[in-house]
Design a protein that fits this description.
130 residues, six-stranded mixed β-sheet, single chain, Aminopeptidase, alpha+beta
């Protein structure tokens, strides 16, 4: 069984990111309004998005002391509408969660979908978003 079997909320499905997600990641990371709330520089290279998606797909879910990323999808359409970054520490007893939601779905309550932290399973969770 995979370490990260995925999560499902009322409107979202969160699954492991794969190479096919590079284009949506690249577009999201190159949106100036979205990038304003994040730490990356523009322009965000397509090659970096491809490399990130390939490297996250090569591991079987989050690992302690490493960043890992999942695709946030609209449950009704399957479209990727964001990403969720997860950094586990202290043997997965603590988690830092960051997420980026595509600007096209801002204002729809996606970022406040029922608490993902309760489904991660760590004893300490912090979150940041953009």
């Amino acid at each position: 069984m995979p370490v990260f079997p995925g999560l499902v909320t009322e409107r979202l499905s969160i699954r492991a990111m794969g190479p096919a997600d590079a284009d949506s990641l690249w577009r999201r990371r190159n949106d100036p309004t979205t990038a304003e709330f994040q730490s990356w520089s523009l322009p965000f290279p397509r090659e970096r998005a491809e490399s990130m998606c390939e490297s996250f797909a090569a591991v079987d879910g989050p690992q302690s002391d490493e960043w890992w990323m999942a695709a946030v999808c609209d449950r009704s359409t399957g479209d990727v509408i964001g990403d969720l970054a997860l950094h586990l520490t202290f043997d997965a007893r603590s988690a830092e969660i960051g997420y980026t939601i595509d600007r096209s779905v801002w204002g729809r309550g996606i970022a406040t979908e029922p608490p993902l932290r309760s489904r991660i399973g760590s004893s300490t969770t912090s979150a940041c978003h953009g």
